[in-house]
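DM from R.C. (forwarded with permission)

"hey, sorry to bug you on a friday — could you get me a structure for this? deadline for the figure draft is monday and I only need the backbone to look sensible"
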Amino acid sequence: MQPKNPLYEAAAHPDPSGSATDAVSGPKLEDGNILENVYTNSFFGFTYEFPKGWVSLSSEAARAVLEIGAALISTGDPTEVDIRKAAGRRGHPLLYVVEPGVGNQPIPMKSVMVSALDSGDAPELTPELFLKSLSKRFKQTGLPMVVNEAPEEITIAGRSFWKATFAAQTAMGSHYTAQFVTMDKGHLLMFVVGGPDPASLHEIEKSLGLIHFLHGPN
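My reply, with the result:
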């Protein structure tokens, strides 16, 4: 998050005129609805069929988890607090679903979070660069984490996504996370999958095969 780093610039210097979402009428980022276990987002134009029986938590719960993640990657730099707040204004939780029975835990053992980050005036902030920057931050914290060294490009629902995996040892045990990021409408659209072990993580990842985009990337 050093100066001249696109991730830093996007967070530290938000566009005073507002995001692209504010400048146009029509669907907003958070315009989504759930019918049974199918989530539909009107702004990005996609549907996602999450695991049956899972429950959707509030946007406030989703944002709280995002803040926990921001705290975990903090390196103690006093300027980071304002940067995280600026990034928070650009971040938009869209969907947060968890396996039943674990919703009262700070970080559910099995979960899928969908969120969007406004890239603002940093078009060079690509999904690949974002994940590389995130990996670097994790390494700088000194936490007992295993980081996938190189994000890989994959295809989901006909779209190019970049994927990175992380493993952390917490007081509650091991926690594995896979992040899938694509670019759409000037935002980093992120699907973050969490599980207690590699096998469960892989099983939850299969649900991303049930993502369907209603239009091509733009």
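R.C.: lifesaver. The two ends are 27 Å apart (CA to CA).
me: no worries. The helical segments are 6-12, 20-23, 59-72, 80-90, 127-141, 198-205.
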